[in-house]
Automatic annotation (TrEMBL):
The lineage of its organism: Bacteria, Pseudomonadati, Pseudomonadota, Alphaproteobacteria, Hyphomicrobiales. SMART domains: FCD, HTH_GNTR. It comes from the Bacteria. InterPro entries: AsnC-type_HTH_dom (IPR000485), GntR_C (IPR011711), TF_FadR/GntR_C (IPR008920), Tscrpt_reg_HTH_GntR (IPR000524), WH-like_DNA-bd_sf (IPR036388), WH_DNA-bd_sf (IPR036390). One of its GO terms (molecular function) is sequence-specific DNA binding. It comes from Bosea lathyri. This is Transcriptional regulator, GntR family. It holds the Pfam family FCD. The keyword Transcription applies. Residues 25-92 form the HTH gntR-type domain. Keywords: DNA-binding, Transcription, Transcription regulation. SUPFAM superfamilies: GntR ligand-binding domain-like, Winged helix' DNA-binding domain.
């Protein structure tokens, strides 16, 4: 009887430990998204120092998940760390860099969409539809909806890239973090409103499995985005 009780106690403790181990990554992701939203929406301006203490108080968490989230953002090039100064938000892209970024996107993303159209799984289709619906339902408010839209938009494009079945294309886009850089340049709800219509055209083509139309829709979307961003970007 004592053996059964001891075994039950160990199993209970093991289950509790498993739950405790599983929670921190989710917390770090929540903190990461919260900081990313603030960077995207310019609540943390480009070049601004990021204070761990103030973020911990604002988000109601300890220093540990803040530091882990900042390390992740640093690895992605969105946060920089300077000796004796600490972390600060990466500078914005200049106009020449924006043009180069869109040139690269136009070279690879339309081709990726064409490939994805013939490789989409049912799960991919469901995820893309869900992301589109979520972006469509976001309230027309500057924050935090704008930052959340940027994350959903990035995920939408990431699903398409992954469905291309081309690992080099997928990795290239992942390393660019294009959507964060772009949304930081223009904290403007017009960007989200017009992108929704373009996403609808792209999603429709993908769900039909039409490679040619998917390629054109992606090219049109990126070209329109390029025009919007450059119009609002100082020379």
């Amino acid at each position: 009887m004592r053996d059964d009780t001891a075994r039950a106690t160990r199993e209970s403790q093991s289950m509790m430990l498993s739950r405790n181990v599983a929670r921190p990554p989710a917390l770090v992701t929540e903190v990461y998204n919260a900081i990313l939203d603030r960077i995207t929406c310019l609540q943390i301006p480009p070049g601004a120092r990021i204070t761990v203490d103030s973020l911990a108080r604002e988000l109601g968490v300890s220093h540990t998940p803040i530091r882990e989230a900042l390390s992740r953002l640093e690895a992605e090039g969105l946060v920089l760390k300077t000796h004796l100064v600490g972390p600060h938000a990466a500078p914005q892209l200049n106009r020449a860099q924006v043009e180069q970024l869109f040139e690269l996107r136009l070279l690879i993303e339309p081709a990726g969409a064409a490939m994805a159209a013939s490789h989409l799984t049912d799960k991919d289709r469901n995820v893309l539809q869900a992301l589109y619906d979520e972006m469509l339902s976001l309230p027309d408010k500057p924050f935090p909806a704008y930052g959340e839209f940027a994350r959903k938009d990035a995920e939408f494009h990431s699903v398409i890239a992954n469905a291309s079945n081309n690992v080099f294309l997928t990795e290239a886009l992942a390393k660019l973090h294009t959507h964060v850089h772009i949304f930081r340049l223009v904290f403007n709800t017009r960007v989200t409103t017009e992108a929704i219509t373009e996403h609808y055209d792209l999603l429709s083509a993908l769900l039909r499995g039409d490679s040619g139309r998917s390629e054109r829709a992606m090219r049109d979307h990126i070209s329109a985005s390029r025009s919007r961003i450059l119009e609002l970007t100082p020379p």
